[in-house]
Amino acid sequence: MASQTPIQSHLVSSNEKYASTFTKGDLALPPAKKYAVVTCMDARLDPAAAYGIDLGDAHIIRNAGGNAQDALRSLVISEQLLGTEEILLIKHTGCGMLTFDNVTAAGLVRQHLGDAGVKELARFAGDFQTFTDLEAAVRSDVAFLKESPLIPETVTVSGWVYAVETGKVRKVV
């Protein structure tokens, strides 16, 4: 076996400890509480702890900025195949997506990966889905989901902001 990085070794040792007391291997595939959370990949967020989600309760979909467009494919699977009935979209204060724009990001790609990297940005039209107003971004993503023919009208969609400074959430829409 090839040597492991320190992070890989940590994964293996932590998993061995976790698996030694694991008792929930019989949970059903669909989420028990029939909801999905779309939130950011920010390392300062612990959705299970912050939002009271036990293993098996909900789908947690994470991406840069808690972006609804990026999450749409997973949400369709969550609802159509696995029966979820509600979506909580939760962005957060201090999000990195507030700190740059598409031009800046494309410039960094060019600097680090060259023209070939810039060409690959076409896979998502070079749109990093950045935003300058947190609450407006929550409203926009909730509207996107509510207006999508892929999200049935029977699915409840709400938008929230999590404050990384206090650990509290507040409803926006």
Automatic annotation (TrEMBL):
Organism name: Coleophoma cylindrospora
Enzyme class name: lyase
Reactions it catalyzes: hydrogencarbonate + H(+) = CO2 + H2O
Domain of life: Eukaryota
Protein name (Swiss-Prot/TrEMBL): Carbonic anhydrase
Names of required cofactors: Zn(2+)
Gene Ontology molecular function, alphabetical: carbonate dehydratase activity; zinc ion binding
Similarity field: Belongs to the beta-class carbonic anhydrase family.
